[in-house]
Amino acid sequence: MYYSMYFDPTYILVLVGMVVCLIASARMNATFQKYAKVRSHSGITGREVAENLLRREGIYDVQVEHVAGNLTDHYDPRNKVLRLSDATYQSSSVAAVGVAAHECGHAIQHAKGYAPLALRSTLAPVANFGSMIAWPLILLGLFFRSTSSQLFLNLGILAFLAAVLFQLVTLPVEFDASKRAVQALGTSGILYEEEVGHTKKVLSAAALTYVAGAAASMLQLLRIILLANSRRD
C-alpha cells in the first residue's frame, strides 16, 4: 500500500522525534540557565578558562574568539579557532566554565589526533550535501512513477544515511570532549569539586541533545525506508 506524503501513519515517527528533541532542548536550556546563575569561586570568565586550559595542554596555536548568539559555542578545527558565545565568553558562571572547557576538549582532541573527530570532519561536507539533496531525490522517487523512480529513492536514502552517520559519529566526539573537560577542570583548580559536579550536569544535558538529534534522524530514516517500501508495493 502506498502512503500519501501529506498524510500517512509514518508521521508518528517524525512526531516522536520532534518531541524527544524538544524535551532534550528544554532540559538543556533549563539546566544551563540554572547554573548560569551560579558564579564560580575563581571568578574567571569562559574566555580565561579556555585560554588557561589550552595553555595547560601545550596548545598555543588556537585562538579564542567571541561569537554572537546564545550557546553558539564551537571549535573550528580548520582555522584552529575556539569561539565562545555571549553566554560564555565574559561569564564566570559554572555553566559558562563548563561549556568553555568542553570546547577546549575538542581542541585537545584535534591536537592529539583523536580519530572520531577526524572522521567527523571528513564526513561533514558529505553529510551537508546529503541533507540538502536527500528529500528532493526522495520526493522525485515517490511522486513520479517511472523506471527511474526507484533509483531516486535509493539515492535519497543513501544521501540521508550519510547525514545520520555524521550524527552518530558526533556522539562519541561530544562525550569524549565533555570527559576531557571535566578531567581538566578537576585537576586545574579552576573549580571546586562541587562546582565540577554542576558542570557535569550542564554537559550531560547538552549531550542529551545530541542523542535526541541522532534518534530523531534515525526515526526519520526509518520513515523514509517505510515510504520507499510502500512505493515498491
UniProtKB/TrEMBL annotation:
Keywords: Membrane, Transmembrane, Transmembrane helix
Pfam families the UniProt entry points to: Zn_peptidase_2
Keyword Membrane assigned: yes
Organism this protein belongs to: Suipraeoptans intestinalis
Protein name: Zinc metallopeptidase
Source species, domain of life: Bacteria
Keyword Transmembrane tagged: yes
Transmembrane segments: 12-30, 126-144, 151-169, 202-226
